[in-house]
Amino acid sequence: MTPGPTDLLLVVDVQVDFLPGGALPVPDGDAVVRPINGLQGRFRHVALTQDWHPPGHVSFATSHPGRAPFETARLAHGDQALWPDHCVQGTPGAAFAPALETHRAALVIRKGLQPGIDSYSAFLEGDRTTRTGLAGALRERGIRRVVLCGLATDFCVLWSALDAREAGFEVLVVEDAVAGIDIPSSAGGSVAAAWARMEAAGIGRLKTADLA
Ligand code: VGL
Ligand code: ZN
Q: Is the pTM of this model over 0.90?
């Protein structure tokens, strides 16, 4: 595809804490930076997202005495995976990856700011009710197709892609510009499960080389 005036590149959570050495490292997370920088030059519209939690956020295992990262907690609005403390507002770990180009983006959308609600999705928070405003902002700019890249395939990319589709956009994911956490499961891991869910939702896949 050749990106046009109604296409937007959505760069999800390419932040220090999700890179190797960070608080919640995504394996090979740093490998997405170079392809994403290349992709950004091909799009007229670029938006960046930032996971942006207050200290003591509900998604942190440390906020649940006796619980460990990667366990699941039951909250009033549903199950919550517990993580190491990560992307705390204003800390070095919450900053964009130093090598990520950020100057082309018209929009930076931050998510996960409410102490008691997580938000993997750039569109709709974990209570599945609170909207971030991103869908409206994209519509006002005339965007019809959202092309996603970034971290992590099986969490924030997955939920952002599903909600973009739900909001009525055409959605594509750039498979060599994403990387996943990949929690093992009997069903073959969360990355394979994420691709299956996205495919079932009508979300397309492409490679950086397919973008001319
Ligand atoms: C993410 C887990 C917790 C992500 C954010 O960006 O995929 N994953 N917070
Ligand atoms: Zn988070």
A: yes
Answer whether 58's CB lies under 8 Å from 68's CB. no
Cβ of residue 52 lying under 6 Å from some atom of ligand 1: no
Q: Give, to the nearest 10 degrees, the angle between helix 158-166 and helix 190-200.
A: 10
Residue 120 counted as domain residue: yes
* Residue ID of nearest Cα to ligand 1 atom 2: 155
Enclosing domain of residue 115: 7-53+89-210
Q: Report yes or no on 99 lying in a domain.
A: yes
Contact present, 12 and 157 (Cβ < 8 Å): yes
Rounded CA separation 201/204 (Å): 9
Tell whether ipTM is more than 0.90: yes
Closest CA to 86 of 61, 107, 66: 61
pLDDT digits (tens, 9 = 90+) for 133-163: 999 999 999 999 999 999 999 999 999 999 9
Write the CATH number for 105: 3.40.50.850
